[in-house]
Structure formats: structure tokens, C-alpha cells
Specification:
Elements (H helix, E strand, L loop, with lengths): L1 H16 L1 E11 L1 E2 L7 E7 L2 E8 L8 E8 L4 E8 L7 H10 L6 E8 L6 H9 L12 E7 L2 E10 L2 H6 L3 E12 H10 L2
Helix pairs in contact: 1-5, 2-3
């Protein structure tokens, strides 16, 4: 009996020391509308799996404007999404600005423009630039995508095309990777089976 308890305890100790971490890979693509009726797609993929999809003249909904996504990198899941129609709604940029200012430091934010986001974006441009996502030079039907860590603009990855022509020649795409959750196998798999 004593020997089996010692073996189980030793095994449990070794398992505590064995730590596993996952990766969270984020890829986002933006699109601008066009006058040629050419289909364009936007998406956010987490570890290669689509978490959001939109399109211009395609099978997905056209989520026009500035689309924002909070990603929980410990589980690599979409925690929250917000759409601000900065083309059709004059007040959308102020709401976007307030939303961004309310996010906590360390929050991983993905931003993707779809169709047309520049028309009424002015009120949010300074706040976006403070994150490291300066899109104030993006014009009508241009496109942008970014991944940012709130409070650390040095980690921001931004890609943009300034005009409709440029955005339709090359859709902006960003990628970023983050370490996932750290957990021990003892807690995940063995804790309840070891306790008698």
C-alpha cells in the first residue's frame, strides 16, 4: 500500500512538472467593394478555422464597415465581435472609439474592414492610430486588417491598401501567433483520478 502511494505521488509530481502550451494563430483578411462586381472575401481564422466570414457579392453576409474581434489567446477562440457601419452610420465611429477605449490592456484585438469603412471613420482614427493601426490614409473602398495587443502598440501587425484599385489587386492580410494556455496534465487529466 505504501509503495503504491509513493509511486502515485512520484508520478503526480512528474506530471506537475510536465507543462504543455498551445499556439494561437490568427489570420485576418479584409476586402473592399468594387464597381466590377468581382467577388471578394474577408475572414478571421483562428488556428486555421474560420471564426468569421463576410463577402462582397459572395455567399456570406456583407458586414460593411469596421469589424472588431476580441480573441482569447489562451483558448484561441473568438470572445466577442462588434461591427460598426462607418459607411452608413455617422455615429458608428464614435461608438467604435468608445469601444476601443474601454478594452483592457493585454486584450488581443483583430480589426477587419469590409466593403467600405472610411466614409465616417474620422472619430475613431486617432484611437486606431494609438493602437498602431493608422488607417486614416485609407480611402473609398480601400481595405485594412490588423491584429493588436491593447496597451502595447509594438505588437500591432497592420496591412492596408489605400484605394479600391489597390485593394482589389491585393487584399490586405495579417497573421500573428500567440502562446496559448499553460496548463499541467495533472490538473487536466489526473487530478480527480488520483484523489481517493
Amino acid at each position: 500500500m505504501l509503495v503504491s502511494v509513493i509511486i502515485v505521488s512520484y508520478t503526480a509530481l512528474l506530471l506537475i512538472l510536465y507543462v504543455v502550451s498551445g499556439q494561437c494563430s490568427i489570420e485576418a483578411q479584409a476586402y473592399g467593394a468594387n464597381d466590377n462586381d468581382e467577388t471578394r472575401y474577408g475572414y478571421v481564422k483562428l488556428n486555421g478555422v474560420a471564426a468569421w466570414q463576410a463577402s462582397w457579392r459572395g455567399e456570406y453576409k456583407n458586414d460593411r464597415g469596421a469589424n472588431m474581434f476580441v480573441v482569447d489567446t489562451s483558448t484561441c477562440t473568438l470572445q466577442e465581435s462588434q461591427r460598426y457601419d462607418t459607411y452608413g452610420d455617422r455615429g458608428a465611429a464614435a461608438r467604435l472609439r468608445d469601444y476601443l477605449l474601454g478594452l483592457s490592456d493585454g486584450t488581443v484585438l483583430v480589426g477587419v474592414s469590409a466593403d467600405e469603412a472610411s466614409r465616417y471613420l474620422d472619430a475613431a482614427e486617432a484611437t486606431l492610430a494609438a493602437l498602431g493601426a493608422n488607417v486614416s490614409d485609407v480611402g473609398y473602398h480601400g481595405a485594412w486588417a490588423f491584429v493588436a495587443v491593447i496597451g502595447d502598440r509594438s505588437q500591432t501587425v497592420l496591412d492596408k491598401e489605400l484605394t479600391e484599385t489597390a485593394a482589389n489587386a491585393r487584399q490586405p492580410v495579417v497573421t500573428a501567433s500567440f502562446a496559448g494556455a499553460w496548463y499541467d496534465l495533472l490538473q487536466k487529466q489526473f487530478l480527480f483520478s488520483i484523489t481517493y
